[in-house]
Structure formats: structure tokens, C-alpha cells
Amino acid sequence: MSAAPSSGAGATAAAPSSPGRRGWSGWWFRPVPLARIAVFRTIAYLFVPVDVFLTTAWVRAHAHVPTEWYAPLTVGRLLPLPTPTPAVVLAVQWALVGTALVAAIGRAPRLLGTAVFLLYFEWMVVAMSYGKVDHDRIAYLVALAVLPTIGRVRWRDKRSSEAAGWAMAAVFVTVMLTYFLAAWAKMRFGGWDWATGSTLTRAIVRRGTMLSDWTLETPGLLVGAQWAMLALEFAAPLMLLVWSARARVALVLFLLGFHVAVYASVAIIFLPHCVAILSILPWERLPGAARRLRAGTVGGRPAEVLPAGAAPPG
């Protein structure tokens, strides 16, 4: 392994894994192209204002809730975090959005990336300390935590890095655990009655759409869907065996398709988790694909293919 470059990304020019690494150690530190980090980091940071102003816009309402209703999560009790007041919530909101937008263009990736993580962490403590804790944000939070460890990278960075491999592996494992632990929680709190009961029926009665209401008239369909969901969630560790670029794209399409289907059925979407899922994609191929697309058109029309040895016109 050659010395890390001055960018601090821990990068090398070699793409394959180090020959001395075996087993899980090799899986965790398998080099990943830095261009993948650059593209995903832009996506992750640009999602912050979307989350703050749309997905979790309700968090701002906690600024006007009586402070005695604040029941901080365990981490909020262990750390000296401020009690949410209008000034605190407003300061965290705008500091988070402003820092994320600057970090999205690649400025001071370690400093600003760390600030984004800490501010979003506090935003989540404010969000989840009033009796409701969502499970769709842990993978995205882990992504924000590991991205600052990579340092400065560019979309067309051709180097690979074991540090980048570890960061993406951490997000990948957390995405997997989100599904696996969801199944574990179903069994822990609901037992097998979760799969044999009326869980989805109740959800569709309460939040169903025109695309899902018909399932209430099909006996056994929703119970079968519950069993299938439970089986897939328990099988989630198998996704860690996926490595080739095509298989990763197929996995992402499957996972995103599942969440789109859930949204179409009961109007529930786990957007932060979906952003974390995007880290699985081989984003390093995006700049090259865009360049080939531009090169394939001339003046908005398909480029002419010249015979071998022929000179271009003009």
C-alpha cells in the first residue's frame, strides 16, 4: 500500500484489493474509487435542506413546545445538549442547512463534513425526543459520520482508497442492519402474530391509496405479503455478498422499488434511508457516462461515424 496523498483520502492508484488482506478484513477495506465518494457526498449533503424543510419540517414545531415535554434520548441525557428553545432550534436549522450547502461543493470536507454530522445529529435529537423515534435515519446518519474521514476528492478522481472502502462498507452494513433489525423488532414485540395478523390490513385501512385499497378484498394476499416482507428482511445480510457493479445497480433498484411500492400503498417513504441506499451504486461511472453522452452528440444530433482513416470535415 503506497503512502496516502496530501489530500488525506488515503488513496492509491490500484483498484483491486491488497493481496495480503483476506476474509472480512478484505471486505471492509476493499478499495473504492474516490469518484464514488465525491458524487455520493454531493447527494448526501444536498439532501439536508430537503430533509430539514420538507421531510422533517415538523421538527421546527418543537421550538414552540413547552420545554418540560422534552424527554431526551439516552444520548441526549449523556451529552450536555441544550434544551430545545426557539433560539436553539432556529440556530441549528439554519447552521445545518448553510453548512451542508457549502460542504456539497467540496469545501473543507473534513471540517464542514464533521459540522454537518454534528448539527444533523442534534437535529435528530430534537426530532426524536418527544415520544416518537423513527428507524429510517440511522444509515443516513452513519453516512454523514463517515464521509468527513475521506478528505478532498473530485467527481473525476481516478484513484481508489481503502479509507473510502471502509466508509462505504460502514454505510452498506448499516443499510442492511436497518432491514434485519426491523425484522428482529417485529419478532421481539409482535412475535409470529405480526406475520399472521392484520398488520398491513390495518395500515391500508388507515393510510391506503387507490393503488392498494383493492388488496383488502383479496383474502390471504396481505398475510402472504407480511410473510414475504419478514423473510426478505431476515435475509438482508445476503446483500453484503453483492459486489459487482451490475449486481449493485440491481440491488439498489430492488430496494428503491420496494420503498416506492410502500409509498404507493400506504403513503410512507423513508427518504433518508433511500439516500443511504444510493451509496451502494458505482457512482464513479457517472462522469465517464456523461462524457460519452456529450461526445455522442454533435449539435444535438447523433455524431457521424467516420470511416477508418478519414479526416473530419472542415
TrEMBL record:
Keyword annotations for this protein, in alphabetical order, are: Membrane, Transmembrane, Transmembrane helix
- Coiled-coil stretches, from where to where? none
Q: Name one GO cellular component term.
A: endomembrane system
Q: Which SMART domains match?
A: HTTM
- Topological type in the membrane: Multi-pass membrane protein
Ranges for the region named Disordered are 1-21
Could you tell me where this protein is found in the cell? Endomembrane system
Low complexity compositional bias, start-end:
1-20
**TM region(s), chain numbering:** 43-63, 83-104, 111-131, 137-153, 165-185, 220-242, 249-271
Q: Where is the HTTM-like domain?
A: 29-275
Q: Which domain of life is it from?
A: Bacteria
Instruction: Report what the protein is called.
Output: HTTM-like domain-containing protein
